[in-house]
Write a structure and sequence with these properties.
alpha/beta; Rossmann fold; Domain 2, N(10)-formyltetrahydrofolate synthetase; Formyltetrahydrofolate synthetase, domain 3; 3 domains; 3-stranded mixed β-sheet; 18 helices
């Protein structure tokens, strides 16, 4: 059966009973129908955070279809619950870009899913729409201020970096001109659209500690300069109050359930190749307030989401992860060993061995943060026993815990061995994770530390535009902010064609965007796009609905 067909065989429990199982009274949740609810921020208990074991699920460098981090996270949480460890899985919300594009939804797969699958993958509780509206409200206020004669801040349109956003892959919107149509239709200027997952407001929502912190961060969004070279922020436009009002419900994390009827929290959805790639601080702390174990995930490979999880989210929120589950697939290792995409289901021990250095590099990177790794082989039916044994032998020879997780077919039961190894690692870990760099270091030093230590680059080059941005960052007094590097997920380098474990390569920083509200800088490398495009045959072609309102084609 497809993921959607499996999901439809499950009889969902009322969300009120899921809330009770989580530990919150039904009267304290805000219902969004029968099976979705918002959780109150007041329920977070900071005194209990250290009592919960925080487990991060990451992955090796993926194939275009992804390697199943979300599925692994859900399956692991089910298994931990089966072992009588009260566990909550905390995930990001799906973006409509991948849902209608090439990657599909983000609610897990097979018998390791969060439900209701259709709702979560589509509009859910409206969080993305609220973020989109708050973002575009600021864009409208900016253009109105340029147009205004009585309320003008003398903004120089040439310096404005704030674009608009939409939650779809639409390459035609990357570069646009607004304000055409005459003097009553605005001032013409070049701008564009990003996807909502790349919005600074998405990043802000996911790092904010509470509603007032959200408002303060929104006010600190850097807009551009006046003609007199004075910096302008959203608070100068008096925009943060209205923006926060639009986000008053979106800041509350969403409670849903897994296939096995366990609580799951889903909140926020920044991509890891163009943003910080993890769910909200509020959602993570909410789960940790009520759970012995909190399982969360970080987007794409460890070099992207996990590095940002440790260096940005954990430092900002004072979180201390106890273990990293490294999702590994035979097909991805063969892909990085030179096998063609259409041959990944064919046994190929030679390609597997050639792709092994990618796994080795990610394990080395985990060690840099002083957190124990567990290799989790996400089992596919096409994996041969010889291929699986080769990875097991590699792990054993390097004294690294490893487990085969057959979660798509068996849900939590297929991850019991993995869960036992996670418990062993987490309960034996008495250390605190080590960050890769100090936020107070020079901006170039922070970029180069990540590029050399995590990616394996030999050198970092900066375009003239990036150098200009470095000077601007210094002038604005923002050098102490961490860096959130935008980079392709397809390679450890900034060149998607360099698979495996590339060496002796140069990382090129072509621009550095300022996300002062979110509290980080965004060095943009390679040809990374903050507004993806649709493939020749997008997933939307297979999605349909009948007269009874039943949706088909989601995956």
């Amino acid at each position: 059966m497809t993921d959607l067909q499996i999901a439809k065989t499950i009889t969902l429990k009322p969300i009120s009973s899921i809330a009770e199982k989580f530990g919150i009274a039904p009267d304290d949740i805000e219902m969004y129908g029968k099976y979705k609810a918002k959780l109150p921020l007041k329920a977070i208990n900071s005194e209990k955070l250290n009592e919960s074991h925080l487990i991060l699920v990451s992955a090796i460098s993926p194939t275009p279809a992804g390697e199943g981090k979300t599925t692994m996270s859900i399956g692991l949480s089910e298994a931990l619950n089966q072992l009588q460890k009260k566990t909550t899985v905390v995930l990001r919300e799906p973006s409509l870009g991948p849902v209608f594009g090439i990657k599909g939804g983000a609610t897990g797969g097979g018998y390791a899913q969060v439900l209701p699958m259709e709702d979560i993958n589509l509009h859910f509780t409206g969080d993305f729409a609220a973020i989109e509206k708050a973002h575009n409200l600021l864009a409208a206020i900016i253009d109105n201020n340029i147009q205004s004669k009585s309320n003008s801040l003398q903004l120089d349109p040439r310096t404005i970096g704030w674009k608009r956003v939409v939650d779809l892959n639409d390459r035609a919107l990357r570069h646009v001109i607004v304000g055409l149509g005459g003097t009553t239709s605005g001032v013409p200027r070049e701008t564009g659209f990003d996807i909502t997952a790349a919005s600074e407001i998405m990043a802000i929502l996911c790092l904010a500690e509470n509603l007032m912190d959200l408002k303060k961060r929104l006010g600190n969004i850097f807009i551009g300069y006046t003609y007199n070279k004075q910096p302008i922020y959203a608070k100068d436009l008096k925009a943060e109050g209205a923006m926060t009002a639009l986000l008053k419900d979106a800041i509350k994390p969403n409670l849903v359930q897994t296939i096995e009827g366990n609580p799951a929290i889903i909140h926020g959805g920044p991509f890891a190749n163009i943003a910080q790639g993890t769910n909200s601080v509020i959602a993570t702390k909410m789960a940790m307030s009520f759970s012995e174990y909190t399982v969360t995930e970080a987007g794409f490979g460890f070099d992207l989401g996990a590095e940002k999880f440790f260096d940005i989210k954990c430092q900002s929120a004072n979180l201390n992860p106890k273990a990293v589950v490294l999702t590994t697939t035979i097909r991805a290792l063969k892909y990085h060993g030179g096998a063609e995409l259409n041959n990944l289901t064919t046994p190929d021990l030679i390609a597997l061995k050639q792709g092994l250095p990618n796994l080795e590099k990610h394990l080395e990177n985990i060690a840099k943060f002083n957190v124990p790794p567990i290799i989790a082989i996400n089992k596919f039916s096409s994996d041969s026993e010889e291929e699986i044994q080769f990875i097991i032998d590699f792990a054993n020879s390097n004294n690294i815990k490893i487990a085969i997780a057959d979660i798509w077919a068996h849900g939590g039961k297929g991850a019991i061995d993995l869960a036992q190894k996670v418990i062993q690692s987490a309960e034996a870990n008495t250390t605190h994770f080590t960050s890769l760099y100090n936020w107070n270091e020079d901006v170039k030093a922070k970029i180069e530390t990540i590029a050399k230590e995590i990616y394996g680059a030999e050198y970092v080059d900066y375009t003239s535009r990036a150098k200009t941005q470095l000077n601007k960052i210094s002038d604005l007094g923002l050098e102490q902010l961490p860096v959130c590097i935008a980079k392709t997920q397809k390679s450890l380098s900034d060149n998607p064609k360099l698979l495996g474990r590339p060496k002796d390569f140069i990382i090129t920083v072509r621009d550095i965007e300022i996300a002062a509200g979110a509290g980080f800088l965004i060095p943009i490398t390679g040809d990374i796009m903050r507004m993806p495009g649709l493939p020749a045959h997008p997933s939307s072609e297979g999605i349909d609905i009948n007269e009874e309102g039943e949706i088909t084609g989601l995956f």
